[in-house]
Amino acid sequence: MLVLTRTIESRAAKVKISAQETTPGHAASSCLLASSMTSKPRRGEDILRGENYASAAAGIREETGRQLGGRITFAGQVANHVNTVSQVVNILRDENEAANYLSKCIYSIGLGSNDYLNNYFMPLYYSTGSQYSPDSFANDLINRYTEQLRIMYRNGARKFALIVIGAIGCSLNELAQNSRDGRTCDERINSANRIFNSKLVSLVDRFNQNTPDAKFTYINAYGIFQDMVTNPSRYGFRVTNAG
């Protein structure tokens, strides 16, 4: 899922935008995109308080999650965001003020897990697992990801927080369905995720080099999740492999 996070002060109002990805992929923004399983678009100046474009099962690739029904892909979510940007310009009545407003947003984006769980590692519905090696599939996802970031940048986004994929091979669903003993993580999935994550970090570096007026950072959700599994007591847990 894609998530955008922003905390700013505009028109004496604080606005927060946040977005993140979970197994049911979706995108959201509290300044213009926010994380949630369902969403209702705001109207009028309420847009300046935040907007939500969440869509469960969404992925970076267009077909990801189609077996689960209707969803709004990453490209669709960004298209909705672009439409909202035009509304912000109309509300603020000045393109420069709108650009200044948007540049203060923090766009948090977390996508990719559904492209693995509800696409690449689901051969019953998708052929990508046989068409692509893990490395080439990650390259395809990164290329699509890059294009959407460019669109967002062209529409005023300047502060990005990109969330890498967590250790989804250790998710309860995967432990139940694909683990040898119901306790051991699926290393096939985690290994593929690490390839994507490594390329996402490189993407962040490239954007920082090529767009000096913007700031791209990444959030190591994989490492955070792994630390929770390895050291559960630090986080108040005793059991990490049962729901």
From TrEMBL:
Keyword terms: Hydrolase, Lipid degradation, Lipid metabolism, Secreted, Signal
Main location: secreted
Taxonomy, superkingdom: Eukaryota
Pfam families in the cross-refs: Lipase_GDSL
Record's subcellular location: Secreted
GO cellular component, one term: extracellular region
InterPro entries: GDSL, GDSL_esterase/lipase, SGNH_hydro_sf
Single GO MF descriptor: hydrolase activity, acting on ester bonds
GO biological process: lipid catabolic process
Family the UniProt entry places it in: Belongs to the 'GDSL' lipolytic enzyme family.
The name this protein goes by in its record: SGNH hydrolase-type esterase domain-containing protein
Organism expressing this protein natively: Arabis alpina (Alpine rock-cress)
